[in-house]
Amino acid sequence: MSSPERLLEILRNKGAALQGWEESVTTVRRELFLPDTIETPHGTVSRDASPDVWLTAVYGDLPLTTQVNDGRPTEDGEYRLPTSSSSMPSMMLEMLDLLQVADGHRVLDVGAGTGLQAAWLAHRLGSGNVTAVDVDPVLVEQAAKNVRAAGYSPHVVCGDGAAGWPHGAPYDRIIASYTVPEIPYAWVEQVPRGRIVAPWGGSFFSHSFAALDVSDGEAHGRFSGYPAFMRSRTARPPRGFLRDFLHHQEEAVETRTTVDPLEIARDADAQFWIGLFLPDAWHVEIEAEDGSDEVTWWLLADDRSSWAAADHVPGQHEYVIAQYGPRRLWDEALHAWRTWRRHGSPPRDRAGITVTPDDQHVWLDEPGRVIASTGADGPGPGRLGP
């Protein structure tokens, strides 16, 4: 029978970062925070129809989607964008380990979702030390019910997470459960001496935890992990099926390259660097369905104005590139990749981030070696950039 104890066993076997969180995992019953119908990585599960399967998913180390398309009715065949979930417990623990909480710390949980993380924090730190904020009033109401049902009473409020929750500031820690393209300076102001942990990145590469220490009005930190969280709802670019982003295919400009597209597409360190200069474009690999092992790497602008297709054919030494729109997305990605190679192909763990009142920049090895900067004029290259 699946239970919190079974979840703890799974997490221990996987080597999850449990230090200090074992009691939260076993005491706070995850089932109290989930609806009767959930979407697992293996499909949709109904508690009424398959109670044992539902409970196995609940007490597995699985991310469970609890809302799609912001909760609005979704027609059959319509694109389903996950917009709220109960995060994978081992991923929650990885992020909480980065947070480095201690007794007495006051924490702001940004992106309350189901309320499970707020309850974990309340169990460890006391309900009075935890505030959770979410932009969706329906989620806020449900999260508040969930934490009460579990026996906790953190402050659960509705608001734009990018603004933090100034009414409860200052905090010792801020933790976000959605991906941000930039660290809001409001968070820095509300943690005058403390730590911020958030999934970080733009559309091209969003698979980093940023852990920043704050003092004297600035935040400095490093990147780690490989999280996959939903984007900030207030700064979320449109998504859909591939066909929704393709147009004017007959007008595409075709070129060739000797660079294998998959050499870029499957290198996380390269993608991190490229993502600093293409924060407003995303990509997807599509494998041929005929057993040929051919792959097309699609690059798609968030505003849907431009796209590129890079075709990988096994055994070939030249690859066909098609591009359309005011931007040449393959050319941009290739230029950034070559710059990364020119600097010795540095791994992501050599990069850091600094947030000030006027600027936010990513650097290599030390704060003075700026790769990319985001100021009043938006993203742009730094002294090491393309």
UniProtKB/TrEMBL annotation:
Subcellular location: Cytoplasm
Record keywords: Cytoplasm, Methyltransferase, S-adenosyl-L-methionine, Transferase
UniProt record, GO biological process: methylation
Molecular-function GO terms, alphabetical: protein-L-isoaspartate (D-aspartate) O-methyltransferase activity
EC number: 2.1.1.77
A Pfam family the protein falls into: PCMT
EC class name: transferase
Domain of life: Bacteria
CDD domains on file: AdoMet_MTases
Principal subcellular localisation of the protein: cytoplasm
Cellular component annotations (GO), alphabetically ordered: cytoplasm
Chain segments carrying region Disordered: 66-85
Protein family: Belongs to the methyltransferase superfamily. L-isoaspartyl/D-aspartyl protein methyltransferase family.
Protein name: Protein-L-isoaspartate O-methyltransferase
Organism annotation: Streptomyces daliensis
Taxonomic lineage: Bacteria, Bacillati, Actinomycetota, Actinomycetes, Kitasatosporales
